Amino acid sequence: MSKFFLIWLVTSLHSDRFLAFKEYIFFSQYCTSEEFFFPYKDLNFCMIFKGVYDWDKDTENDLIGTFKVTTNDLLTKDEFEIINEKKKKKDSYKNSGVLTIKLEKVRTKGYSFIEYPYGGTEMAVSFAIDFTGSNGLQHLPESLHYNKPDYDINNFYTLNDYEKALSAIGYVLEPYDTNKYFEVYGYGGKFFGKKTVEFDCALTGDQNKPSVFGVAGVMEVYHKALQKVYLSKFIIIFIEIND
Question: What is the mean pLDDT of the chain?
Answer without folding.
Answer: 75
